[in-house]
Amino acid sequence: MNKTVIITGGGSGLGLALAKQYSNEFNVCLIGRTESKLQEAVRTLSQNNNRVSYQVCDAANYEQVQTVLHAIFEKESVHLLINNAGTGVFEPLNALTKEDIELMVNTNVYGTIYPSQAVFPFFKKQGFGKVMNIISTAGLRGKVNESVYCATKFAVRGFTESLVKEWEGTGIFPTAVYMGGMDTPFWDETDHIKDRSRLKSPETVAKMIFDQDDNRSEIFIDR
Ligand SMILES: NC(=O)c1ccc[n+]([C@@H]2O[C@H](COP(=O)([O-])OP(=O)(O)OC[C@H]3O[C@@H](n4cnc5c(N)ncnc54)[C@H](OP(=O)(O)O)[C@@H]3O)[C@@H](O)[C@H]2O)c1
């Protein structure tokens, strides 16, 4: 059976570009909250030989994640989970609402921790597996008007670095991925980035990630 890659936030941006890249060699299962986006993504990706499917699931909802990931593992031989779903609200700290703060913490932190925890028993039983966490250069240093976004990405960095140590010798490989700006729908609702044409394309970044996906614990696209 062909191996499968699960990608959260696979309906747009980097997640969709990673899906395109990985679907050349693997089956791909996309996770996201908006069914129409996932359906469109599957339609565009289904032109090659590997199977592309989707599951509607909020990565920050513990129960949904457990149910959906268990169901995927029953049908597929999963070897890689890419925690890519993420969101950002870029304003001075005092301008962020409670909802903005909770959205970033829930999506970026819980939305990474819950799927990672859910796949662990399956990967442990298999004796192999990989968890790739899409972070950002915002997980490497603080930035103006990105305080809470950076806090969430630092959290995912600490989480990933800890798993590297905790899972040593299990055959399960966590990877932290750091990149700068990419021209994706992430920036549609904000003017935080003045000139999007200077950003890398998500396809370029997806290829760089794929080419370095060799069980290393860190991938630096930008520093
Ligand atoms: N764009 C950049 O410049 C940049 C730079 C460095 C790092 N990153 C990181 O790269 C990752 C991908 O971002 P992107 O640029 O590709 O943005 P994007 O196009 O907005 O993609 C984010 C995807 O995540 C999904 N998502 C959001 N919340 C979710 C949830 N709770 N559960 C499941 N899916 C959820 C969204 O779909 P639904 O809303 O339909 O669920 C969307 O498809 C993020 O982690 C981001 O922090 C981006």
Automatic annotation (TrEMBL):
InterPro entries associated with the record: NAD(P)-bd_dom_sf, SDR_fam
One annotated Gene Ontology cellular component of this protein: membrane
Keyword Manganese: no
This protein's record includes keyword Membrane: no
Pfam families documented for this protein: adh_short
Keywords, alphabetical: Oxidoreductase
GO MF entries: oxidoreductase activity
Domain of life: Bacteria
Family the UniProt entry places it in: Belongs to the short-chain dehydrogenases/reductases (SDR) family.
Protein name: Short-chain dehydrogenase
Species assigned in the record: Fictibacillus arsenicus
